[in-house]
Amino acid sequence: MVNYEPGQDRNVAALSNLVMCDGFYKMKNFKEKYMRMALIEAKKAALIDEVPIGCVIVKDNKVISRGFNKRETKKDVTSHAEIEAIRKASKKLGDWQLIDCDLYVTIEPCIMCTGAIIQSRIRNVYYGSEDPKGGGLVSSLKISEIKNLNHYPNIEGGILRDECSNIVKEYFANKRKNKTLG
Fold this sequence. Notes:
The protein is of the alpha/beta class.
């Protein structure tokens, strides 16, 4: 339980509590734990020959939904890991607003997924590796620089960066290798 001082912002109080309880170490472990779950989802995508990107959405320290790329399987351009997870979370909560939810995704969300994250009011976005060709948070587009959006999620990247990046690199290396062999 977080104790507030008179006039203290709830986020400042929560951060103070984390520091006093060795919380930064615990926070890092939680982030890595959920990113590892997102990596499991990415591996599911690779098993069905989809680009291996995985996502989990967390509310109150519990995973409420999971998703992985199914664009080729469903023949649906919107079936990215984040969209799949957002749809499931909204259905589970019975609301399109995911205000107290955190999204963990192996690769920086694209512009489409960033739009869905903003519209669904997701609180925090944690990603593994940047996407320099299509990232919609910090790489190709910087949402923090766009004025007048109705919501700006907190963003943190680099969680298990190498693992998240390598699974995608290996997938495309295998695709190129198999193409030259075939």
